[in-house]
Amino acid sequence: MWVGNAREAVDFYVAAFGATVLHRVGEGDDLVVQLAVGEAAFWVAPASAALKRLDPRALGGATSRTLLVVDDPDAVSAQAVRAGATETAPVADEHGWRVGRIVDPFGHEWEIGRPLGDCSSG
Amino acid sequence: MWVGNAREAVDFYVAAFGATVLHRVGEGDDLVVQLAVGEAAFWVAPASAALKRLDPRALGGATSRTLLVVDDPDAVSAQAVRAGATETAPVADEHGWRVGRIVDPFGHEWEIGRPLGDCSSG
User: Fold this and answer.
1) What is the ipTM of this complex?
2) Do A64 and B62 touch (CB under 8 A)?
3) Predicted confidence (pLDDT) per residue in A29-51, tens digit
């Protein structure tokens, strides 16, 4: 996902989601980082108008929302809010999921949840 | 991901990626559809300025890019182009991956690839 400040965003995702850094290449405006949260992996890289990589914080919205499946959505959502995210929907039971939504400080919206009835804690 | 026309987008992803429909709820501006491509699943729903769900086709860019891991990136990329996508990077060997990029008719950019050296065809 494209962000206004990749270095700060990586620090946020580590603090908010307990993400681990899988790859880190380049510096500053060329910094590209791959992060993992459990089995999920995603990349963070700088927004660039020239490359049509739009900054959702600047736009006040994003063109997609990311579903992050975790064992404990309540804990991860609370941790993300403590790290600076804004809760847009509290974690609740909905359509067979335990799920809530946040917007992170870089403008990306996340749905954080797990299917109900799945007691694995891999 | 948010799209200008969810019904058309679903038809496109089925034709382009061989996606299957897992869930389909609502109609028209309320249509929400979950699609699967192999082990990957994603949702398509209408863009809405009021809900800050931005339309990447209208913006001429997106706030993220999606990596789609498939067994045969060359075939899937070619199928997507035949279905109406625009190739932005031809499929090639790069950083240990066989990978290319397309922008779909709804403004979302996809990276389509697989790790090299992985010969599974599950």
Assistant:
1) 0.91
2) yes
3) 899 999 999 888 999 999 999 99
